[in-house]
Amino acid sequence: MTTYLHLKDTFVGGIEAGGTKFKCVIGYNNGDIIAAKTFQTTNPTDTFAQAKAFFKEAIELFGEINALGIAHFGPVDIDTSSTNYGRILASTKKNWSDTDVVGYFAKAFNVPISFQSDVNGAAIGEHNLGNAQGIDNFVYITVGTGIGGGIFVNGELLNHKSHAEIGHMMIPKDMAQDTFKGCCPFHTNCLEGLASGPAIEKRWETAGQYLNNKHQAWALEAHYLALLCINLTYSLAPEKIIFGGGVMQQLQLLPLIREKFTAMMKGYAPASYSPTNEHYISPTGLGEDSAIKGALILAKQAYDDQNGVFINSALKQACQVQASQVV
Ligand code: ADP
Ligand code: ZN
After folding, report:
1. Taking the alpha carbons of 34, 66, 140, 192 in that order, is the dihedral positive or negative?
2. Rounded Cα gap, residues 37 and 47, in angstroms
3. Mind giving me the DSSP string for 138-157?
4. pLDDT tens profile 120-135
5. Ligand 2 centroid to 185 CA: how many Å?
6. Residue 92: pLDDT band by 50, 70, 90 thresholds?
7. E strand residue ranges, the chain
8. Is 211 in the pocket of ligand 1 (CB under 6 A)?
9. What letter does residue 170 receive in the DSSP assignment?
């Protein structure tokens, strides 16, 4: 039997677990969302209980889900052969280290589960349905409670036993310009400690959403994010860098990042980058839904894996060619 991936959508559940917001949805892997609920990420017990209650109610109303995709803030163990698979590793978020995420939801719903970092989920969402469609080499970055990134190389998620931790890269810092020591409990001078939402709040004693869009915070923020873009450009030569997350709701940031990025590169760039390409550093195509839609796609992958549909890019391509011939 030939299975045509993407021809038929599957009814699934999705979770996007951020450090501040916990989003649950049911819907289809084409990104259609039927019901959704967002609540605060507090402690694992209360937060998971709210998620479980949402899915129970949604399933009663709309029917059984076939699988669940979870895009969770990290670091998370995504190695299915590991004894810690499905758990949160040593985390910057208090009370969440060693939480067994997959174990909890597998027990609650008994459906196939696919588990990824939130930013890998968002990268999958953007690649399939958003601003990275047809782009095989790109990085998705979120700037929110934490900073993290999902990387696609040659059309595949860079995903092996572990996921990247881009947010904790060390960033050159001029102590005369910025005396703030950073808020990462593990490092000083890592990007997340200097430029995440909590870092902005701690440095300026006001959360980013309450700062004027002309505040000096944004030039400094753009400086640090431009350094991130330079490091990504020189190490990965992506075709695109996509920025999402709560802090990026400051729309003045993207043009500032582009300006500082170009100025600091000083013309030394890989061929994948063109200074005239204003889309090189770009916003998400899915608004705030990159990770939650990615979670629905992850769920579909878990469902297909369980049902013996072997997913790899070559097969997917072959299926899509065949699918385009079926009218
Ligand atoms: P999560 O990390 O749970 O996915 P967000 O991406 O919304 O959630 O990140 C939350 C962080 O983003 C908080 O530190 C908050 O202060 C900051 N933030 C949210 N909205 C804005 C905004 N409009 N401008 C600047 N910062 C914001
Ligand atoms: Zn750090």
Report:
1. positive
2. 12
3. EEEEEESSSEEEEEEETTEE
4. 999 999 999 999 999 9
5. 7
6. confident
7. 11-17, 21-28, 33-40, 68-72, 113-117, 138-143, 147-153, 156-157, 240-244, 281-283
8. no
9. B
CA atoms within 13 A on the CB side of 193: 20
In angstroms, the CA 233 to CA 257 distance is 13
Residues 70, 113 contacting (CB under 8 angstroms):
yes
Q: What is the average per-residue pLDDT within 204-213? A: 98
| CB of residue 250 inside a 6 A radius of ligand 1 | yes
Q: Model pTM?
A: 0.91
Q: Nearest to residue 88, comparing CAs of 104, 76, 102, 103?
A: 76
Distance 145 CA to ligand 1 centre (A): 6
Domains of the chain are 11-120+288-324 (3.30.420.40), 131-284 (3.30.420.40)
Q: Tokens 């431009």 belong to which residue?
A: 226
How far away, in angstroms, is 170 Cα from ligand 2 center?
A: 8
Residue 25: alpha-carbon gap to chain centroid: 16
Q: Is the dihedral of CA 86, 248, 228, 170 positive or negative?
A: negative
Query: Residue 252, class by beta-carbon neighbours within 10 Å (0-12 exposed, 13-18 middle, 19+ buried)?
Result: middle
Q: Residue 176 contacts by C-beta under 8 Å, 6 or more apart in sequence?
A: none
- Residue 307, token pair as written in the block: 């049902």
pLDDT tens digit sequence for 143-152: 999 999 999 9
Q: What angle do CA 202, 204, 205 make, to 5 degrees?
A: 60
Preceding omega of 75 cis (within 30 degrees of 0)? yes
The tokens for 290 are 């990159």
Question: 127 CA distance to ligand 2 centroid (A)?
Answer: 27
Note residues around ion ligand 2 (Cβ under 5 angstroms): 168, 184, 186-187, 190, 192
Q: How far is CA 258 from CA 94, 162, 219, 242, in A?
A: 34, 30, 12, 12
| Residue found under tokens 């992850």 | 298
